[in-house]
Structures are given as C-alpha cells and as structure tokens.
Design a protein that fits this description.
mainly beta, ten-stranded antiparallel β-sheet, 10 strands
C-alpha cells in the first residue's frame, strides 16, 4: 500500500487551518486565479525513496478562503486557506492545527496548479522541483457536454 505525501496528509487532516496572511483571501493573480475546482494529475518528487502517491481521484476546490479536499477514499473536508500571490513564488501558508506554521508555495502555469508545502523541510520551499518537498500538480476538470 502506498503512502500519501506529507502535503496531502496535511490537506486531508481535520486539523488543517490556514493562517491569516492578510485581509484579502485571494488578491488578484496575473495568469489566473486559484479559485475553482482542480483535479490531481501527477506528483513531482525528487527523492525516489519517497514512495507516496495521492489518490488518483483527488479533487481540491478553492472558494473564497475555503478549500474542499475530496476523493473516493476520503470523506470531503473543508478547510480555511490564505495565499499571497504578490510574492515570488506565490505563498500558501497553513497552520497544521497544532500551532505549527506550515509554509508553502503555489503557481498556476499553462492551466495547471502546482502546490508545494514545506512540511518535510520545515521551511518555505523555493522551487517546484520536488527535491525537498513533493509538489502536487492539478488541473481544472474537463467539462462534460
């Protein structure tokens, strides 16, 4: 049985609560907005020993400061989140529910959302290469006709 990446476990945990970076839950972001529904496509991992994979049916839905995390293997959970897209790379800061600040980054590029949480490294990641922390890559679901 494969293990889930640490960043996914944080998102699926009931204690996931975002920290207050500023008053605006989502300032404008050049190149697109994080709001909306995103489905898992792949995981970028630099360490071959990592071995964890998120559920293939993982769906994250961002809506006005709340993120819903769902899959067939996990009941849906809704959590708060805060981002700062004015930083480079854009920041996604989380509180693990135990008073520990977890720092992350994200970007939207060519229709894909990249999310990297510095839970393993205990610091804010600086790149989306998966060397220190796994990177979730998601895309908007295809609309059914």
């Amino acid at each position: 049985m494969s293990r889930l990446p640490a960043c996914l476990l944080l998102l699926l945990s009931p204690a996931f609560v975002a920290s207050a970076a500023d008053d605006d839950p989502e300032p404008p972001l050049k190149g697109g907005a994080i709001q909306g529904e995103w489905t898992y496509t792949r995981l970028i991992v630099g360490d071959p020993k990592f071995g964890g994979m998120p559920p293939k049916d993982l769906v994250l839905k961002f809506d006005k400061g709340k993120v819903s995390v769902a899959s067939m293997s996990q009941p849906p959970k809704v959590h708060s989140y805060k981002i700062d897209p004015r930083k480079t790379p854009a920041r996604l800061d989380l509180d693990d529910g135990n008073g520990k600040q977890v720092q992350g980054i994200y970007k939207i590029e060519k229709g894909e959302l990249y999310v990297c949480i510095g839970e393993r490294s205990n610091s804010r990641p600086t790149a989306f290469d998966g060397k220190t922390d796994p990177v979730l890559v998601l895309k908007r679901p295809t609309k059914k006709k």
